[in-house]
Amino acid sequence: MSDIIQLLPDSVANQIAAGEVVQRPASAVKELMENALDAGSTNIKLIVKDAGKTLIQVIDNGCGMSETDARMSFERHATSKIRKADDLFAIRTMGFRGEALASIAAIAQVELKTKRTGDEIGVKIDIEGSEVKSQEACNCPQGTSISIKNLFYNVPARRNFLKNDTVELRHIIEEFQRVAIPNPEIAFSLHHNTTEIFHLEGGQLKQRLMAIFGSSYNTRLIPVEENTGIVKIKGFVIKPEFAKKTRGEQFFFLNKRFIKSPYLHHAVQSAFEEVLPKDSFASYFLMLDVDPKTIDINIHPTKTEVKFEDEKAIYAYLRSAIKKSLGQFNIAPSLDFDQEAYLYNMPLKPIDGVFKQPTITVDPNFNPFTSEGATRNKPSERELSNRNNWEKMYSRNTDIQPELEIKQEEDTQHTIDTDWDNELHESNKKATYQLHNKYILSHIKTGFMIIDQQGAHERVLYERVLDTFEKHKSATQQELFPKTMELNATDFSLIQELLPELKAIGFDISEFGKQTFIVNGVPADTANFDSVKLLEGLIENYKLNFQELRSNKRENLARSMARNMAIKSGKLLTQEEMNNLIDELFACKMPYSTPNGKPTISTISTDELDKRFKK
Ligand code: ADP
Ligand code: MG
């Protein structure tokens, strides 16, 4: 038999290798932006069309390339960044493998225009599926412009694998931020289709963060700085009171490269331990600088994990640096003008001699149950029959089924011996008992049931929101004073995407300039909530559910609304509120579990109780 092993043609090898480097438009964005950084640019412009599927273009004002280098740059393992193995241990550039351009050129149509400082004329190269289509002199500005058109045009399987534009754009924004944050002295911009999403001037890190995440960050950031022999730490953490429930904004940069490190994250989280609300995550933007010799550089550049030589020491330094900053912030509350004025203006003792409790903006009399009456319709057939079934099952007394009650009397007669007992039972028919402001206990025919108040209310609200979607019947309460809401780019594009759904459930929101929405109205039954807080909470939850629910926007929104509007564990309820909640719960299609599948009700039978008391 003849030999069967062959070398793959370059084009095929390149295509295979490309899969490792370029998974989606955002990976190409990362590679191009890093090349622009390595070229010493001070201004980097990113232009994308259709979330990078049709065009990704990066224009820089860096060193540019000679004609030969321009041609060479598309060869595999062609790099100007290392020459010998030793160089590997001193790498400060973002790239060094010489793979990115070769990979990208294998799976897209690429146009490169470049000119070096001092050169009269530049060069333009068109390359498609690793094949050079044309090369000519061109009159272009100093620096480099690379356009990647129709990514994966020749790898349909990959192209089909791409997510919708919103998702792909979100990945691009993420990569853009990961490059823009650690390089605040460089100007960046990001254009998508006809909008400029970011326009970042060169400046300090704090300005950069404010330009990306909103000017409100001005008062949220606490500086962190520490220089040790092993690591230089510099950056900001977010004040604990602005911590988020989602993992949100957590950025580590190692030698200006974005990295993920659960280990170092733990260091930060533990520094925040005592000051962070439960279930919240610290937000941070921290630059670590170490000698490149002390990190494992064999790690693939597209991966974000790193291995440190002095991991434990870095952990300890990081933790103590943050603790120190938090301490300074707590003990000597910054020289923030507002805060100081507040301290000085505070009377030592109030005039009437009594310290008033701080007021909260929430209406303490707000009853989440009564407000429903106004917007809810009469119970449907299904609700009625569900209620009836439940009544049959539990024989809980209500007005709807008086006959059942009599039956129940008979049924339970044998367990109630004395008149007194009977009396008590009578008055307790509808009585419920709240345990630890968290659970509602109620009689049922065969024993008692325990209802988780928060979970139960979530179920009720969840079905109501889904119902609103289905019936296209929402009620909007106009805000007396429309509020503006400034968001970071990711959240802004998320709300943009969700606008039709938000409208369907009663929100009246419109875009209002750059990364800002104006809230004109809210769903009628949320009129007692702070609309901006509610929307922010909604987005947070939406992102949390995103992995699980993917593109099911309605389901996700319904869950998120329910989560945010539900009465919480810890809230004291009146008898009436408890009864209303139970009635509403049993009018649901699926009363027994929360939207997330946790139980809402647990029952304990008298038999079980008897057993416990060894009867
Ligand atoms: P690497 O960055 O790992 O060296 P790339 O494939 O990304 O590999 O780029 C290959 C080479 O092309 C780089 O080493 C650099 O010399 C050159 N190059 C790429 N992009 C630019 C750019 N924007 N400006 C100047 N030179 C560039
Ligand atoms: Mg590179």
Q: Secondary structure elements and their pairing?
A:
Layout: H1 10-21, H2 25-38, E1 43-49, E2 55-60, H3 67-72, H4 100-106, E3 109-115, E4 122-128, E5 131-138, E6 143-149, H5 156-161, H6 165-180, E7 187-192, E8 195-200, H7 205-213, E9 221-227, E10 232-238, E11 250-254, E12 257-259, H8 262-272, E13 284-289, H9 311-331, H10 337-345, H11 370-375, H12 381-394, H13 402-412, H14 419-428, E14 432-435, E15 439-444, E16 447-452, H15 453-471, E17 476-486, H16 489-504, E18 508-511, E19 516-523, H17 531-549, H18 553-565, H19 575-586, E20 601-605, H20 606-612
Parallel strand pairs: 1-7, 11-13
Antiparallel strand pairs: 1-2, 2-6, 3-4, 3-6, 4-5, 7-8, 9-10, 10-13, 11-12, 14-15, 15-16, 16-20, 17-19, 18-19
The structure holds adenosine-5'-diphosphate and magnesium ion.
